[in-house]
Each structure stands twice: as C-alpha cells, then as structure tokens.
Amino acid sequence: MSDPLKDASPHSGEPKEELLALALEAARRAGDLLRDGRPADLGVAATKTSPIDVVTEMDIASEKLITGFLAEHRPEDGFLGEEGASSEGTSGIRWVIDPIDGTVNYLYGLPSWAVSIAAQKDGETIVGVVAAPVRGETSHAVLGGGAFLNGAPVRVRPAPPLSQALVGTGFGYVAERRAAQAAVLGSVLPQVRDIRRGGSAAIDLCDVACGRLDAYYERGLNPWDYAAGELIAREAGALTGGRPGDPVSPDLTVAASPAVFEALQPLLEDLGAWHD
Fold first, then answer.
1. Do the Cβ atoms of 213 and 206 come closer than 8 Å?
2. Are 98 and 83 in contact (CB under 8 A)?
3. Residue closest to 255 by CA, chosen among 142, 148, 157
4. SS3 (DSSP) at 68
5. Torsion sign, CA atoms 75, 77, 78, 81
6. CB 48 within 8 A of CB 16
7. Which cofactor names does the annotation list (predicted)?
8. Within a 10 A sphere around the Cβ of 153, how many other Cβ atoms?
9. What is the DSSP string of 74-128?
C-alpha cells in the first residue's frame, strides 16, 4: 500500500489528492491528540463572544499541531484558523481550520465534536475533511469527486415533504442572537418532523450528507465552521446556500436534500432567520 504522505509531494499526483492526503493525516493526528490527551481537569482557557463561547487549552494545541504539520509539507500555503492562525501564503491555497468544532461538547465530555479542515484554491473550497474521533468517523470530499464516510460513498436522503423532514440547527452565544433564533425555531418546528441540535456545525453538515438529517440551517457560523462540511454535503447531493441567491455565509447557512432545501430556504427567508 502506498504512503499517502510520501505520495503527497508537490510533484506527485493531482494537487487535490495531495491536499486531501495531508488534510486526512492532519485531522487524524489532531483527533488522536484531542481524544487521547484530553485532561481530566480540562478547563476554559479563554472566552470569545460571550462567557459561554469558550476556548480550551486543547483548541489551541490542536490548531498548532494542524498548522505546524501542514506548513511543514506546504510552507507557501496560507491559513485561516478559529484560534488565530492567519496568513495569506503565496501558493493560492489556503487552509481553513476548526481545531475543535463543538468545543462545548468537548469540554463536557460529549462525543459530538470534530476536527474540520478545508483547502481552498483562490477562495473556492476544493477539499474538505471532518474527523469525529469519538464517533469513529471521518468524512471527506474533493470538489467534483463525491462525498465519503470512512471511505465509503454517501448520498443525501431522498427528500421527504418539509412536514416530514428532520432538521438540524444551532444557536449563537450572544443572548440577543439566541432570542432571535429561538423565535425563528418556534415557527419552523410546527412545520417539520422534528428538530435536532447537535452542537457541531461540521458534524451536522456531514449528517446531511449521509442521510441522518434531511436539512440543517444556522445563522452566525464562521468560515471555519462550514468550509469543509458544506463541500461534503454538496458533493453528497445536497443543495447549499444562504439567503435566496446567495452562497453560505455567516448570515445564514442552509444545507438540505434538494426538495427540502427548496421549501426550507424561502421559509427561513420569510422568518428573517438571517438577522438578529
């Protein structure tokens, strides 16, 4: 069997395959560190937008591991990471990294957290990897190459009517935004089968990809939250977007089986899900 890292030299194979091999290995290493090295007395290292939007020492360690590994193999690439990694690079490739997506879950010892790594070329996501070590799952996609869970191809669930759709969502950490999101949810809930709130946008997007959710929406995500998962969902056959006619963005992220998307997106627009 070939060594994916040996094969992933700047002079071998297709660039996307090189980037995928590196992303998979970086996510594996970070996931092992986070799963096996979690301190029993793990505490909060800092807060971000509010006292409940936390950073742990392990978020910081994971991002350092990922950026160090990728920079060793591709020193001319840029980075955008949740915990502060930011550089333009000169290669046209930028890595978008969430070292722990679902930090609150991780802090509490819940299993739904993931390492999310995307590679973008000139602003377009071309590789996405989401590793959820406690779930024993790694999802990945290469632009134009389909979506995979633990190496097996996945597709979105055949779309039910919106009234029978299982919909995932999430909430921000600032009180005013949470209140607005709760109001939207109150109007969405009677119109769908049920709502799930997993606590990791990356995992929710992958759950759309493999048919565990019919749809997912959320306001207030950052690029590192959705970059990898959005590509994986799209490559599995989901439609993705923000407000009608717009791509996914911090204003709104929607991913769903096509028929569910076509019903859910205008509903969210009418309900003002894109503003606080």
1. no
2. no
3. 157
4. helix
5. negative
6. no
7. Mg(2+)
8. 12
9. -TT-EEEETTS-EE--SSSEEEEEEEEETHHHHHHT-S--EEEEEEEETTEEEEE
Exposure of 94 in the CB half-sphere (CA atoms within 13 A): 17
Residue with tokens 């949740």: 82
Q: Are strands 215-218 and 239-241 parallel, antiparallel or unpaired?
A: unpaired
**Biggest alpha carbon–alpha carbon distance for the chain:** 55
Neighbours of 109 (CB within 10 A): 11
**Residue 75 CB coordination number (10 Å):** 10
pLDDT of residue 53: 58
Structure-block tokens of residue 90 = 């000169």
In what helix (H) or strand (E) does residue 205 lie, and over which residues does it extend?
helix 201-209
Residue 42 is encoded by which pair of tokens? Answer: 């793990």
Residue with tokens 């190496």: 151
d(CA 58, CA 84): 14
CB of 114 closer than 8 Å to CB of 209: no
Nearest to 272 by CA among 186, 175, 200, 146: 186
> Residue 259: is its pLDDT beyond 60?
yes
| All domains in the chain, ordered by first residue | 4-154 (3.30.540.10), 162-271 (3.40.190.80)
54 falls in which pLDDT band (50, 70, 90)? low
Closest CA to 248 of 214, 212, 192, 202: 202
pLDDT digit string (tens) for 187-223? Answer: 999 999 999 999 999 999 999 999 999 999 999 999 9
Q: How confident is the model at residue 133 (pLDDT cuts 50, 70, 90)?
A: very high
Looking at residue 135, what DSSP letter applies?
Answer: G
Tokens of 27: 């996510």
From the list 126, 113, 115, 52, the residue with the least C-alpha distance to 81 is 115
